[in-house]
Amino acid sequence: MSGGAEKVVCVTGASGYIASWLVKLLLQRGYTVNASVRDPNDPKKTEHLLMLDGAKERLHLFKADLLEEGSFDSLFDGCEGVFHIASPVDFSANNPQAELIEPAVEGTLNVLRSCAKVSSVKRVVLTSSMAAVVYSGKPLTPDVVVDETWISDPAVCEKSKLWYVLSKTLAEKAAWEFSKENGIDMVAMLPGWVSGPLLQPTLNATLEPLLKLVKGAESVPLIYPAWVDVRDVANAHILAFENPSASGRYCLVERVLQFSEFVKLMRELFPDINLPEKCGDDHPFASSYKVSRERAESLGLKFTPVEVTLKDTFESLRARNLF
Ligand SMILES: NC(=O)c1ccc[n+]([C@@H]2O[C@H](COP(=O)([O-])OP(=O)(O)OC[C@H]3O[C@@H](n4cnc5c(N)ncnc54)[C@H](OP(=O)(O)O)[C@@H]3O)[C@@H](O)[C@H]2O)c1
């Protein structure tokens, strides 16, 4: 145990894929964690958290909803750090405004308004996304290195009807504006496509298409191939909270793979898997670019190689009979 002894922090959306790992690592480091869930009575959302080492002594579950004004006030009281992770992840919303954009943008502002009311909160770590980075309209070619100065353009997202991407872009923009106006010390984490073992019992939106692919999907499902390990994402959030000099945005991508590279790697790992030979030229898997790891590594983050991440992902799915 180290780092967090006697410190209280809050994680929003604690039952989710990334947040569950964050809660696990925070408890391991000795933190007391106030965790927000939408339904504390749903065992599918809470049992895996309550079973974590240290949970009995130091995990407190609270009911909160992003769209309920003031819902987070009591959770943050006495917390030094707030990890705002909750946001809908859905690539096929029927009503993007209500299902994605409102909870992402208004929910983030709701959380930040509660932070501004509570004097104990010293830093907010916001989970944004590479979605809020790469859709700037600039070309993505093999010689391009994307870094934290890139910002997605809402007009580009809207034109391509990328509603999840738009929700993350607008939420991060609103968060920076609010934090600057209200003197909140905020750091934003920008993960790529997150994979790796799951702690929660149900499949989340980014593992689902991967599973479809290895189960014999006829075409390549929507997967953005800028890979990062869920354990590294959780760890990066903690490093950003603990390092007083952390500031601004941090891209979290181990590697971008083209489809042919992904297929080669998967065949080496799992020779019995059938994968499509090609993806379409306009599929995100077709573009090749690099993402700077410099700022993330300056926090002390050591990225897990994508080979290990993918192996652990499918072994975890297999162990849960989901594969
Ligand atoms: N997975 C990725 O590849 C990836 C990449 C970059 C960034 N991110 C970001 O990381 C965060 C977590 O994503 P994830 O992959 O871990 O997805 P996830 O498992 O679906 O987690 C999303 C969490 O948000 C909560 N949530 C959604 N709407 C809410 C609302 N109205 N009020 C309160 N909570 C609400 C969900 O609560 P319920 O459990 O009650 O539904 C869930 O706990 C999101 O901000 C996402 O945009 C994810």
Automatic annotation (TrEMBL):
Residues 9-247 form the NAD-dependent epimerase/dehydratase domain. Gene3D superfamilies: NAD(P)-binding Rossmann-like Domain. SUPFAM superfamilies: NAD(P)-binding Rossmann-fold domains (SSF51735). Coiled coil: none annotated. Transmembrane segments: none annotated. The keyword Oxidoreductase applies. It comes from the Eukaryota. GO terms for molecular function: oxidoreductase activity, acting on the CH-OH group of donors, NAD or NADP as acceptor. InterPro entries: Epimerase_deHydtase, NAD(P)-bd_dom_sf, NAD(P)_dehydrat-like. This is NAD-dependent epimerase/dehydratase domain-containing protein.
